[in-house]
Amino acid sequence: RSSAKLVAPLGCLVSRQKHTLPDLPYDYAALEPHINAEIMQLHHSKHHAAYVNNLNVAEEKYKEALAKGDVTTQVSLQPALKFNGGGHINHSIFWTNLSPNGGGEPKGELMEAIKRDFGSFANFKEKLTALSVGVQGSGWGWLGYNKEQGRLQIAACANQDPLQGTTGLIPLLGIDVWEHAYYLQYKNVRPDYLKAIWNVINWENVSSRYATCKK
């Protein structure tokens, strides 16, 4: 599957294809030692798969409620659509944001934008790390693009709230800080996981997303 399909918007609810779990662009063990194979396998084949399955179920129920004009059921399904739809969107971005050949620093336009909006790459890294460490409970730390202001911003989202759907920022880089993303390897020491994940950030992917959203 192409990475473009991974970030497709949720399909039309009247006549639609079911959502499917995207393939990883690398093996489960490819991100070791920074993220081990057991975490990647469980995270992708169990957690992300559950979001996909539950999203399909919720959309089917929504489709039926829509056909009946049952607004009460449509409203009651919103939390499930948001949680599972967000989980699918977020993870589809997350997998492509990571690479066994990642790490280091971005180049070109993205690096210039980071320097412009955060002062330096080191300052940006420090801010996004601190924001992600500070997420209470489960959630995500994000680098996003504010299209109206033409600048980069960082933001935290709770649970599986999707960045664009809840803040309007276009997602460029997401860091999953749910415990299932790191606990088997890093236990409850989230800062160690966040220190390690910078070694596998796929800056080519992040830069490509930045170039696309600027058009």
Automatic annotation (TrEMBL):
GO terms for cellular component: mitochondrial matrix. Residues 106-209 form the Manganese/iron superoxide dismutase C-terminal domain. Keywords: Manganese, Metal-binding, Mitochondrion, Nitration, Oxidoreductase. InterPro entries: Fe/Mn_Superoxide_Dismutase, Mn/Fe_SOD, Mn/Fe_SOD_BS, Mn/Fe_SOD_C, Mn/Fe_SOD_N, Mn/Fe_SOD_N_sf, SOD_C_sf. Pfam families: Sod_Fe_C, Sod_Fe_N. Residues 18-99 form the Manganese/iron superoxide dismutase N-terminal domain. It is found in: Mitochondrion matrix. Its cofactor is Mn(2+). GO terms for molecular function: manganese ion binding; superoxide dismutase activity. Its EC number is 1.15.1.1. It catalyses: 2 superoxide + 2 H(+) = H2O2 + O2. Its main location: mitochondrion. Mn(2+) binds at residues 43, 91, 176, 180. It comes from the Eukaryota. It is an enzyme of class 1 (oxidoreductase). Homotetramer. Destroys superoxide anion radicals which are normally produced within the cells and which are toxic to biological systems. Destroys radicals which are normally produced within the cells and which are toxic to biological systems. Belongs to the iron/manganese superoxide dismutase family. This is Superoxide dismutase. It comes from Tyrannus savana (Fork-tailed flycatcher). The lineage of its organism: Eukaryota, Metazoa, Chordata, Craniata, Vertebrata.
